[in-house]
Amino acid sequence: MTSIVDDRSDSAFVLESRETVAPCGIRWTAVLAPPAWLAAAAVTAWWPQPQDWPRTTELVAVALAVAVVVLVTAVFGHRLGKFGRAARRGEAWMIALAVIFTAWELVTAKLAWLPVPFFMPPQAILEVYLDEGAMLAECVAYSALLLVKGVAIGGVAGFVFGLALGWSPVASYWGHPILRFVGPIPATAWLPFAFFAFPSSASAGVFLIALATGVPVAVLTWSGVATVSSAYYDIARTLGANQRFLVLKVAIPAAMPHVFVGLFMGLGGAFAVLVVAEMMGVKAGLGWYLQWAQGWGAYGNMYAALVVLAILCSGAVTLLFRVRDHLLAWQKGLLRW
């Protein structure tokens, strides 16, 4: 029995894909996804187009490759473990992406309903990746390095500051007004100060990203530590716990869900600041690439960079969720974000 027909022995899959299984036992998403991508390849290859777009042949190959992958996962997904289950959950999305891809190709390259160069066809985006992949990769590496530095510094500083605010009344007395005064200011408003105070645009960018990350982490860490039930501390003290144990083994573990919420919020702000900082003064990175492409009217390059930026942001959030799920395994089933 192939996985196109519902396999009732896989209880997890049945639970996840209950809505996509017809009463007759056929998963129509598995049946329709490969033809949808074959149709997209056929439209790209054989529909006449008013002008010659390079890389059309390569785009047809990509669509055919996706069709083959979707077909393989539909037929043999039940033998591919986690990858097969994930691929089968995404079959409906693969159909939607094929429809979007075909419509995009039709209204841009084939029918020319949308003006060029503001709306470029898919093969123009693919051309950017094939011809300028090395330059984009260098910009991704630079942006990733800048982001990691800023998020690491801001996350650690925000965590320590928030922990002090939540644990120490003295730190709360002096630090809380500062946080309430500085916190609401958008990180991008510090641009003039950062580029004046720091010796290089890269260090200024790290400062801005750290600021955008650190404020929400500090607020959420302080909130998490301050809301820990006093009963936990009383029980620990009864068992002989000292101050260090109360902080490391009671306060911090109880506040970790709040800390990850702060990291999630800070990561979103960090990406926004990253693009702005690179546009203002940094000589490389995705923000610089976006501004460079806009200046030359290379909208295909701009869209290609936006796709890469979206993938980078989504990957960072996914990595954060994986770390959270690993560290907070004791709260599995309770977290809903």
Automatic annotation (TrEMBL):
Superkingdom in the source lineage: Bacteria
Membrane-crossing residue ranges in chain numbering: 28-47, 59-80, 92-120, 140-166, 178-198, 204-233, 245-276, 296-321
The keyword Transport is assigned to this record: yes
Intracellular or extracellular location(s): Cell membrane
Residue span(s) of domain ABC transmembrane type-1: 140-321
One Pfam entry name: BPD_transp_1
Major localisation: membrane
Full protein name: Alkanesulfonates transport system permease protein
Organism: Blastochloris viridis (Rhodopseudomonas viridis)
